[in-house]
Write a structure and sequence with these properties.
Largest sheet of chain B: 4 strands, parallel
Distance between the termini of chain B: 81 Å
Largest sheet of chain C: 5 strands, mixed
Distance between the termini of chain C: 49 Å
CATH class of the largest domain in chain C: Alpha Beta
Oligomer: heterotrimer
Strand order of the largest sheet of chain C: 1-2-5-4-3
Number of helices of chain C: 5
CATH architecture of the largest domain in chain C: 2-Layer Sandwich
CATH superfamily of the largest domain in chain C: NADH:ubiquinone oxidoreductase Nqo5 subunit
Strand content of chain C: 15-25%
Low-confidence stretches of chain B: 197-201
Helix content of chain B: 25-40%
Number of strands of chain B: 4
Number of domains of chain B: 1
Shape of chain B: globular
Chains: A alpha+beta, B alpha/beta, C alpha/beta
CATH topology of the largest domain in chain C: Beta Polymerase, domain 2
Structural class of chain C: alpha/beta
Low-confidence stretches of chain C: 186-194
Helix content of chain C: 10-25%
Order of helices and strands of chain C: EEHEEEEHEHHH
CATH class of chain B: Alpha Beta
Amino acid sequence: MSKRVVELELATPGVDAQGRASRVPLTADRAPEPGLDQEHMLVNIGPQHPATHGVLRLVVELDGETVVRCIPHLGYLHSGFEKLGEYRHYNQIIPLTDRTDYLSPMSNNVGFALAAEKLMGVEITPRCTVLRVIACEMSRIISHMVWLGTTSIDLGAFTPFLWAFQQREKIYDLQEMWTGARLTTSLTRVGGLLADIPDGFVEKLRDFTKTFPKTLGEIDRVLTRNAVWAGRTQGVGTLTAEEAINYSLSGPMLRASGVAYDVRKDKPYLGYETYDFDVIVGEHGDVFDRYLVRLEECHQSNRILEQALDRLPDGPINVDDPKVILPSKTLAMTDMEAMIFHFKQVMEGVKAPVGEAYIGIENPKGELGNYLVSDGTAKPVRWRIRPPSFINLSALPKMAEGHLLSDLIAINASVDIVMGEVDR
Amino acid sequence: MKRVGEVKSENFLLAKFENLVDWAVNSSRANSLWPMPFGTACCAIEFMATAASRYDFARFGMERQAFSPRQADVLICAGRLPFKLAPVIRRIYDQMPQPKWVISMGACASTGGIFDNYSMVQGIDTIVPVDVYVPGCPPRPEGLLYGILLLHKKIKGESLFDAVRRREEQPLDDKGLRLAPETIDEISEPFGNSVHQFRSA
Amino acid sequence: MIPGALREAVARDGEQIVYVPRERLLETMTWLKQTPGQKFDYLVDVTAVEFRDRERPLEVVYFLRSLKRKADLRVKVELNSSEELAVDSVWGLWRGADWLEREVFDMFGITFTGHPDLRRILMWETYAEGNPLRKNFPLRGRFSRAEQVRQALNASPEAHYSMEELSIAEASDDLPEDMRERLKRGERGVIPEPPATP
């Protein structure tokens, strides 16, 4: 496995003699002022607050400005996805997956389809595999772009938000070309895809991969060596590798703490082992390292996109199995057998054999797991989403302890939560 | 003193005083709306896209987003609304000063959308009065902009003097509800292609 | 051989499943985490499954992973729905189990003995309709829509501090008596009336 530790080079104040970021522990001077050391204060943040990234509610116990305890309250966006899934056919669940983690809809679609295919024992075609990789990496880029934009607003920089959203609009255009929707793509089907990519898609995506690093460079120039940014993120919300593992963190949160675990490398799916990319690992496990890991992951996603475009094979996108994939409209209208298959699939759904399957994929937020249990009918008995940002958020009370209230905003932002997925 | 016919200047205007006041008040209200984004889910992302570079709703007088309800004119509920969040949106609506308007953005806010289940409010109009419904799942930014323009039109048709066209505060009744229970049950019924048409399912 | 294993199976996706009796769950989990050859140091997920077949027991499923060995293991505990639904908490072994177990408690009503803070996590604390992911729970809930809206609107969004949060903040003594009483009765402050027609 090729690993690369991101090197920090700071040229502005806040740098020690070796040119390394000087990380001053924030617990330094904590002697209470006389007469002020008794009273703790409870502050309620959210559920309607612009800095909680959705409808998260935090009840914070403060000693002066220092967080003594932080208690998250969830469930303000609980939508009952898992219950709804038990009433839907496998292909009908895919539109639900869009709306769980709505910052990276396409890779959610892929995650669910892979789990259903594993359950049914369906092998997808080579072209479909590469197209799904493209979908996943596009999702990673747009998700990290939202994270960059909103986090920089939280910490007082507005410009990166506009740059990041410009890049998002470009990917949105591509998603719209491919699926007809900007956000809720419902891209995959069990055994294939909604549609093949349209003419001009490859050129447009290639164009994007050429111009995108320039924007990343601009964001890097504005933020990475910025004294304000570094001062508000370095040494804040630190988690060691052991803690990160113990809290079951995944994705950039885990890697920023120095654990080189990436599902794409360690339990490869969609042929990720054949792509050349680096697992980005942080060193200090603080907010700044999480930022660097995400920024660098965008570069790596760009690399994967380029490789995927180079190797995109010709051929069908759907498996050749009328029990799983709907026959084409023309065939269903002209051929009796195809029409019967069409009818049975629409009315009864695709039946899965008795059993269970779990697959974890590396979503932008972390490991997105889909666990399906079937009793032989067309609807799953249980559809469980392993929500990466829900589990990552559970470390927030631990990370926030002893920090200032304003750091809590930075720490909460660094978790990269999306409430649709946290509350499901 | 000159009679009207003798006035040489072209700079005068004939209008009923009430219409003139309505025109002035409504134009200034409509052209500088301060939105309160109540973003919960997917629609909030499209709301952000509408606010960002390409669509930029500052062009329609929405330059300032009020993140505090006390300085807001229009509540934009972008996204689905679970029952756990229902008292929160009602509180935010009650905190907004008059005159206030509500845009329900997206299918979930307007009807419950695909979430016809135990946790979801089936349309925020059971909680707060809604002025403009923007359909879509989520609506495109153009859709939201069109909804905002429709709201402009609606505001310009209001009147301070006409009791029918005046905006009044709509408090909850003594049971703490906005609509009669039968009405809520009726508008929350499953409809369309819902997989389970009956509540017993 | 894994201590306490009742039987083993292989899932359709090729992963190994171990069934453990509920009395020996904690012992088995400790062994799996600490034995050098096993070292399942990472808890991927905790969830539960209830089958449509009422005769089949509920399953609590633990997904374990060893990051070093890149090995996965699924541990299951079967619970008969006629008996008390309770298992030991693995909070002491993996801190990640904290919210996952709370969610299973909320959605299935399974108690995790030894969990330090077992409260509802997604639904509110006085939620009276039941445990949503149980099979006997109707998709649209037990109450009528009007009753659901009434309960939701009558809840005060401010009376959400739970008692233990306040006691730790040493603020509960300063509260007026009626508010303390109200908070004691539940997070939302309002006890929903029992439904006229279930």
